[in-house]
Amino acid sequence: MSATIRDIKEKTGLSLSTISKYLNGRNVLPENQARIEAAIQELHYEVNEIARGLVTNRTRTVGVVVYSVESLFNGTLLHHIGNALREERYGIFICDSCNDEKIEAENIRFLLKKKVDGIIVVPVSRKQDFLNPARDADVPVVLLDRSLSEGAFDCVRIDNRKAAFEAVKILLNHNHRKIAIICSDSEHEYTGYERYKGYLDAMEQAGLEIVGSYQKQGCHSIEFGQASMKELLCLKDPPTAVLLCNYEISLGAVISINELGIRCPEDISLFGFDDLILSHLVKPQLYMVVQPMRDMGEKAVEILLHHIGSKEKTPPVEIVMNTSVRTGNSIAKVTSEVSAANGG
Amino acid sequence: MSATIRDIKEKTGLSLSTISKYLNGRNVLPENQARIEAAIQELHYEVNEIARGLVTNRTRTVGVVVYSVESLFNGTLLHHIGNALREERYGIFICDSCNDEKIEAENIRFLLKKKVDGIIVVPVSRKQDFLNPARDADVPVVLLDRSLSEGAFDCVRIDNRKAAFEAVKILLNHNHRKIAIICSDSEHEYTGYERYKGYLDAMEQAGLEIVGSYQKQGCHSIEFGQASMKELLCLKDPPTAVLLCNYEISLGAVISINELGIRCPEDISLFGFDDLILSHLVKPQLYMVVQPMRDMGEKAVEILLHHIGSKEKTPPVEIVMNTSVRTGNSIAKVTSEVSAANGG
DNA sequence: CTGTTAGCGCTTTCAG
DNA sequence: CTGAAAGCGCTAACAG
Q1: Which helix (H) or strand (E) holds B303?
Q2: Taking the model in full, what pTM does it have?
Q3: Are residues B29 and B145 located together in one domain of the fold?
Q4: Residues B175 and B246 in one domain
Q5: What whole-number distance in Å separates Cα of residue B135 and Cα of residue B139?
Q6: A298, A287: one domain
Q7: Residues B144-159: what's their mean pLDDT?
Q8: What CATH number did the domain enclosing A80 receive?
Q9: How confident is the prediction for chain B on average, in pLDDT?
Q10: Is residue A257 a contact partner of residue A268, using CB atoms and an 8 Å limit?
């Protein structure tokens, strides 16, 4: 069907190597350049990247594996990663792990068979086993957003513990004492556990007791956020504020208070994570921890391309980025009397 | 680095072709099967899909080009497409057009160079020029969600005109007469124009005059939805109901009424498009046109794979799927007196 | 600067 | 059923 370098050879009478050189930007006589260019136009020639990849052993393609392509968080990350990669003329193979470790492992093997030059992964698994094939094949990997238990790969993320800590501090500054948390559990996800620890740090520093029924740990999902919020609201002695530890849980919690007709911040104060238009959509505007998603995506690409460029091994690095807080009006100031009464 | 079929040849003493046959599921003596399998395990051999693709001229890879990977609408579509493709052991090359026609055209050329077997595209452009290279290279293309002006490619979509028509009918049944529309314009997008026509159909059938200031046509974006909604609300004689013709515009409209402190449905009734958790998130629940996104994605894959399987050309087909309406409480019943007064 | 040659890893004739 | 040989489209030495 499509023209090959051989057709150009026929048309121009030049050798394959001259044409190849022209295609790769090396020096060719102006006259020959013109002839090749003319033939390319005439034949609608396009390089066959497959053939090129076979010989160069570089496909100029990066695989990106995300835990779920349906999550707006990942969509945003993918957008920034894609932009950064396109600038460097890299293609992007996106794989959806559907929040399933088996699919995730399959995705890695798939990408390896496709001979990608490197892989960026926002992982489902907590352990690194699924990445062993990549390591064996010497294909560089950069983790994004979530680190793994062993820490053997480069990772770009935020300081989750600190971010949660600071969020709780803001709640404390509004005199909240009965503060609950909904997060993904350590088995399910890295960030959930870290954020939980940040919550504990702040509570302990404030000398507050950790109430068992105020701790909701489970899946990273809208459903879990929704159900947990409902449970918290139905407690005999409900919390006055809740920290929602990721985007999906934040969504679920908002759905829940809508369903139950609970008012925010009059009845409950909320602090969410990952501001993806959510704070603009719902009334009142939510306080949220915001991650520098663009910087994170770009940094991951930068590190990966650096590895691809120079095959020398370097010890794994963790890039930890700063978060910020988007203020809203989802937090009520607890008056001291009430605070005292509640705190008792 | 990684093992090749040659290493297996050394280990087993068998010929390349026998090994290749085994890898492709053809008949090989049980004894030889066992030897090959053992060598594969030992060497961690994985097929080099690049090399295979070079000779078979099939990469078992499909390109998917979406207008924006940041849009939840596309994320959902991608999820279903990815699932369907994975089941058929196809890989998926996702390209983000960033709502830019130039990038979109670039994406097509990129995929062609990567020798994808077929392309699914949710297009930015209204005209098909950017797909000419694919047609020239005999790579099958299926359009999804949005059709092009010429209709020369297969397309899976809904009946946009009818969907909008029915939405307006529901508003009319609630006695609304002053009905506005916010949609993407025909220059920007296929669906916008179709939905606009459906709106006109319903208004004309009801014998209502089309008020110029109630027609907002522009970009498919949150910003446009937000700004347009604000303009409508600030009119001297504002509409009592608004049809929001896509997800981003629906988001923008909700943001706008939140900002202005307008109540829905007391002050204004809303009817949106594409229910992607939005109706659950905001209060009150929005009435929405919902598209069968999963069916659409799966159908697009089915058609594409069929084309890939049999290279014979068939005239382009348009698959038009049915929509449904998710009811909410975002529409107020206009009392007849008011209706008469307003309708005047 | 240009051409010749070899070969990337695999599949595919075609004999045997 | 198995093996030898050719070749997919391109790049990478090496001579010239």
Answers
A1: helix B293-309
A2: 0.90
A3: no
A4: yes
A5: 6
A6: no
A7: 93
A8: 3.40.50.2300
A9: 92
A10: yes
Percent of chain A with pLDDT over 90: 69
Asked if A115's CB is within 8 angstroms of B49's CB, the reply is yes
- Asked whether residue B266 falls in the same domain as residue B204, the answer is yes
Nucleotide nearest to A24 (CA to C1'): D11
Whether CB of B56 is under 7 Å from strand C: the answer is: yes
Position B343 scores a pLDDT of: 41
Determine the average pLDDT of the residues in B100-104.
94
A-B interface: how many C-beta pairs under 8 angstroms? 146
Q: Determine contact: B294 vs chain A, CB below 8 A.
A: no
Q: Would you place residue A310 in the very low, low, confident or very high pLDDT band (cuts 50, 70, 90)?
A: confident
CB-based contact, A97 to chain B, within 8 Å: no
- Chain-centroid distance, C-alpha B336: 40
- Rounded to the nearest 5 percent, the helix, strand and coil shares of chain A are 50, 15, 35
Nucleotides of C under 7 A from a protein CB: 1-14
Lowest mean pLDDT among A120-124, A201-205, B189-193: B189-193
pLDDT at B322: 96
Over range B286-297, report the average pLDDT: 97
Tokens of A89: 């003329």
Largest pairwise CA distance in chain B = 92
Same domain flag for B195 and B284: yes
- The verdict on a CB contact (< 8 Å) between A113 and B2 is no
DSSP assignment string, A25-55: T----HHHHHHHHHHHHHHT----HHHHHHH
Asked if B75 is an interface residue toward chain A (Cβ–Cβ < 8 A), one would say yes
A96 and chain B in contact, CB less than 8 A: yes
Verify whether the Cβ–Cβ distance A75 to B70 is below 8 Å.
Answer: yes
Q: What is the mean pLDDT of residues A42-63?
A: 90
Residue B33: CATH number of its domain? 1.10.260
Indicate the residue of A48, A93, A282 with minimum beta-carbon distance to B282: A282
Q: Could you give the number of structural domains in chain A? A: 3
**Which residues in chain B are contacts of A254 at CB distance < 8 A?**
281
Phi, psi of A70 (to 5 degrees): -80, -15
* Tens of pLDDT, residues A215-257: 999 999 999 999 999 999 999 999 999 999 999 999 999 999 9
Same domain, A120 and A94: yes
B contacts of A4 (beta carbons < 8 Å)? none
Q: Which nucleotide's C1' sits nearest to the alpha carbon of A21?
A: D11
Closest approach of B62 to chain A, Cα-based (Å): 10
Does A226 lie in the same domain as A298?
no
**Both B332 and B208 in a single domain?**
yes
Distance A16 CA to D13 C1' (A): 14
Across the interface, whether the CB atoms of A258 and B83 are under 8 A apart is answered no
Average pLDDT for A168-175: 97
Residues of chain A contacting B2 with CB distance shorter than 8 Å: 112, 136-137
The span from the CA of A114 to the CA of A53, in Å, is: 10
- When mean pLDDT is compared across A1-5, B66-70, B125-129, the lowest value belongs to A1-5
Beta strands in chain A (DSSP E): 61-66, 91-96, 118-122, 141-144, 154-158, 179-184, 215-218, 241-244, 269-273, 287-290, 318-321, 324-326
Who wins on pLDDT, B65 or B57? B65
Residue of B nearest to A76 (CA): B70
For residue A286, give its domain range.
160-291+326-341
